[in-house]
Amino acid sequence: MSRCDMVKKARRSQRRPDSLSRDRIIDAAIELLDESGEGGLTFRALSERLSTGPGAIYWHIANKSDLLVAACDAVMTRTVDARIADASPEATIRTLALGMFDAIDAHPWIGSTLIHAAGQQPAVRILERIGQQIRALGVPDDAQWTTVSALLNYILGVAGQNAANAQFARMHDLDRSNFLDALSTAWSELDPDQYPFARSIAGQMRVHDDRADFLAGIDLILGGIRGLRTDRIDQGA
Amino acid sequence: MSRCDMVKKARRSQRRPDSLSRDRIIDAAIELLDESGEGGLTFRALSERLSTGPGAIYWHIANKSDLLVAACDAVMTRTVDARIADASPEATIRTLALGMFDAIDAHPWIGSTLIHAAGQQPAVRILERIGQQIRALGVPDDAQWTTVSALLNYILGVAGQNAANAQFARMHDLDRSNFLDALSTAWSELDPDQYPFARSIAGQMRVHDDRADFLAGIDLILGGIRGLRTDRIDQGA
DNA sequence: ACCTGAACACCGTTCAAGT
DNA sequence: ACCTGAACACCGTTCAAGT
Lengths: 237, 237
What we know:
The first copy, chain A, is mostly helical. The first copy, chain A, contains 11 helices and no strands. Chain A is about 70% helix and about 0% strand.
């Protein structure tokens, strides 16, 4: 019924010698995500990088969500499979958590993907590793799920925040220190009556160490786990 | 250059008597999000519900992100402003956290919005309320930021997971118990050598109480905070 | 000042057609 | 079996034009 659109000139004719494959697609997706953030991953951009048409990708990958989860899982596997020296369960959990933090820091898009893929492969990988250490710690069976999911939820929260911060900074062309300055300034301009606490810590924001704070949070939870056996009684005041 | 598209017949002519306003738009957005999830909020759907054109909304709202944050903040305000009976700081934090959980449960889209709006109004509201209680608890100044952000990150992690689960369930037309069954089954079919822990807790998944688990995680962190003064030394084994 | 709605520049996804 | 790329059904956003 309509024949209005002009035919665009064919963009490309050369095919890359190596043929398309699920793995090559996932690698290219990771590159794209690392270079230009979550918004940078597009079937068109991806197919251009792979010298094909958008439709070709669908032969190997179900849809965008599948692609994102697969990319996230590929990074996750590298992170979680890193050999960890024998150490106490608590030390191993710390190492595991720091590995996660570094992966998230290097690939901020992992944060939102990890959260959107709740319960799927990438998250189960960490859950499993943490769970094994929680068992080794001697946490009773009926407290294991609670304990592990507290750690996991905390890690995912940090991951999500990190992804959001990175995206915000990218969108406004800010580096990390400019971003923290902007946030700190915004907080210190809040109404003193309504936001006394936020104002009081606005200064700390500018100088804080994300990685150290992250680990401190893990230690807080580990401390709570340690306390499970000893002070179940005096939860009163 | 092209005049190919047929003019679609005008959809609407009646204007609603009450005029458009930022608040009316935000209320309609919340309705839409509650009814049909994150994917349901569209400028076209929204303008249809408000009996206007998509462009009209932009007179009152900067863009979609602004709209989402405003909608999230509106719900957040109701949640956080609920009067809380005088109680110990720990009890108040628990009540606050449970209020958050219930809000997230009633409006799952809050989860992803809250995370994407890291550092902005909606998150600062909770941060402030938690922070005041942390102060009241007597946590030393230099540990306040760490402590509050641990609690906040944990809450946001749960919020994000909840949003993801709700979206997954909606997409596959599952109710909560069907969703848990599917997850539990998937986990119990994992490779026993690689995923002993995930398999072992698959059963618990089916019957667990989200709300109780959430609170247990809060208590774990509160326990860690309580321990801050007492056992800074023996972190060894 | 506020609203209208066609138009623009994108998306993810499909599918007839090719090899 | 695998790839091509035009086409479809959407998006968020803009903007000349109206009141």
